[in-house]
Amino acid sequence: MGYVAIKGGGQAISGAEKLLEFIRTRQGETGEPLDIETIENQLYFLHSRIMSEGGLFHPKLASLAIKQSMGDTLEASFALRAYRSTKPRLIESPILDTSNMRVTRRISASFKDIPGGQMLGASTDYALRLMRTELLDESPDAFKSIAGKWLDENRYDEIPDTFPKVLDALRDEGLLPPVNEAISEQKPFDITREPLVFPVPRSAALSTMARSETGSILALAYSNMRGYGDIHPTVAELRVGYLPVMLPHPITGELIEAGEVLMTECEVVAMYEDEENGDKPSFSLGYGACFGHNEVKAISMSILDRALQSGMKNGPTNPSEDPEFVLLHIDGIDSMGFCTHYKMPHYVTFQSDMDRLRTTQEKHTNKHEEASQKGADNV
Amino acid sequence: MNNSCCKISRSLWIRALKLVPIDEIKVVIDAVIDEYEVTYKSIPQSGLGVLQTKDTAMHEPYFLGEFPIATSWVVLTDKENNTYEGAAQLMDDDENLVSLFAVCDAILANNLSSCNKLSDLVVLGEFKFAQEVRTRKAMLGSTAVDFSLLGAAEEDKENKRA
């Protein structure tokens, strides 16, 4: 059978789009459309995830993306990523120092008495994973009163505006490798402008992991945690907060605050290694960060950062140390696109597969018939 | 030289104005804008910025991701042909909004008429920002971990029982 060009399906595609809209609105008169601010606040962690996986800190459009994709994280991130691809790049921020973060949570698994103290912030870490059935029929009046009551009951004006980094204290004690000033002067790799052609610098790996899909980066980091690797990390500091985005004033050049981004940041301390070049042994480090509040992603990224450093230096000994394996398999939009493309018509390639199989089967049958014939002749 | 009527630093004007209801800013600007011819020194634009930071482990710079940015640079010319410049960059897509803020910047920076009214709005915005800061501090303060040694905690319990 030869190649047959086909057309049609337009009506079905249009019908499918309308059906999706029906599904979204089928509550009818008993339903209310989701408003953008409700998504940002009540679906806080989902909203964070979309901004980080979309690679764009745009709270309003992230909410819209969640709404139009009906909560599909991959589709929502895709919509945000597609939007960004239509916009011109106007500015590159100066290097923003995350120690200026307006922190809402900071913890350490390394010491109990970290400078500035540990503050849990909003966390599910110690929550019982039991169903809160009272939320099944939550009263709007009760809902509206909770935040106000909490604010009235909690006043802590003595808390400082910023906090020192735990790593700085360890570095002052000589337990960490010194900062390489030459590295801090390097121009970072821009993954939105250049393809990943390996080997890539660490800055490319950090950017790629910062917008990776949470489940994907967790899976690869988990492989290392379980035994396909030997990082054995300790969380030196995990913090969540708002980083002021300082940009130069067009007239004066003075840095002005154009806005702020919610972000999560994690540093892990890993096993120390004896230095081959005779330097003093010190702990090795891993770093993770992403837009929004997403601690699993930041911790996973910090473990993989440490694993990739090892792979880049000594050659990979397991998948999580292989930059090509890790960085090319953690982007949600890439992997979802490849996966879902299998749903698209493959009529021609499959026709070719069938033709090849039939020919092979025919040869197989002929060969067996010939063998049977020879056997019969020999009797 | 800073001759603004506004005592709050210019670097914080945009942050403050963003927290004020936009209609209140428009009322102030509408009342004075006819005194000036407004031209653009550069065309207002909206697009993306890329956020550059450095990892706090090795201090290596990298790009965390992108953010929306709108930018505008205006020139106000009064009836005596005096010119006053103002500009703004805002994490937003709205070119009209950023141009409005650029006009505010020109009025505040050059101490033009209605500077005091705008300055009051900047103060209001900073007050709202301070409220948000207080909320964030409450998040920390109410969840600060008060460590004590296991033995000491047990002693406390015993003292309470006694």
Walk me through what this model shows.
Chain A has 2 domains: 12-84, no CATH class; 98-122 and 164-337, no CATH class. Chain A contains 14 helices and 5 strands. Chain A has helices spanning 10-25, 36-42, 44-54, 59-68, 73-84, 140-153, 166-172, 181-184, 202-210, 214-226, 295-314, 323-327, 332-341, 347-378, and strands at 89-92, 102-107, 234-248, 255-273, 282-291. Chain B has one domain (10-161). In chain B, 43% of the residues lie in helices and 27% in strands. Chain B has a 3-stranded antiparallel β-sheet. Chain B is elongated and about 80 Å long. The termini of chain B are far apart. At the A-B interface, strand 1, strand 2, helix 9, strand 3 and strand 4 of A face helix 1, strand 1, strand 2, strand 3 and helix 4 of B. Strand 1 (89-92) of chain A pairs parallel with strand 1 (37-54) of chain B.
